[in-house]
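// run 5 | inverse folding | seed 20
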């Protein structure tokens, strides 16, 4: 059950990414596409990022990638994280032959966003280092450190992962008391609470 919950936490990171209010996009989040297009033409990069997000949601993936690439090339952390996520998960579709190159690029984008302090990029990169893959070797200590930053910013999925890692001693010294505290934090807004044993903290 513990492994199932860890998988659930990883899968839910996209949901928490959607729930986390990115301060960089706060002033453009609710603008219509026509307004965003005008602002993009004036080289407002926040508008460019938001417009790209909207277009991806509308199924216009080619232009969405182009616009997000412009902002990512300008070193906008929100764009680096989002473009990395799209590339990693083939959002909008991709050819199987492109997967390796896309994921290699995504890793570089995640690393850049982490260096800039983007909270969800920390959680996304942590997921990469939790297991061996063709793109990265498992590094539990780095995964824990990355998740801890995301958890401190209030991401419930990262808080659950920190609890699990603390209680298992995975990438960090085992500490049941600290693990239980993070388990509690991860469920603050849930009516039905999972028992500590679901986190391996019993």
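// decoded
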């Amino acid at each position: 059950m513990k492994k199932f919950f860890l998988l659930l936490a990883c899968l839910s990171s996209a949901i928490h990414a959607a729930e986390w209010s990115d301060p960089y996009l706060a002033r453009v989040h609710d603008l219509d596409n026509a307004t965003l297009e005008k602002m993009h033409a004036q080289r407002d990069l926040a508008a460019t990022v938001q417009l790209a997000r909207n277009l991806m949601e509308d199924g216009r993936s080619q232009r969405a990638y182009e616009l997000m690439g412009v902002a990512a090339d300008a070193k906008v952390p929100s764009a680096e994280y989002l473009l990395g996520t799209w590339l990693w998960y083939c959002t909008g579709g991709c050819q199987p032959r492109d997967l390796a190159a896309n994921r290699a690029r995504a890793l570089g984008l995640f690393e850049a966003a982490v260096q800039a302090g983007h909270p969800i990029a920390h959680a996304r990169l942590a997921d990469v280092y939790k297991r061996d893959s063709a793109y990265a070797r498992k590094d539990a200590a780095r995964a824990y450190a990355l998740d801890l930053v995301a958890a401190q910013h209030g991401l419930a999925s990262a808080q659950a992962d920190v609890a699990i890692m603390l209680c298992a001693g995975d990438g960090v010294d085992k500490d049941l008391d600290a693990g239980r505290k993070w388990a509690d934090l991860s469920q603050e807004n849930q009516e039905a609470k999972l028992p500590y044993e679901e986190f391996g903290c019993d």
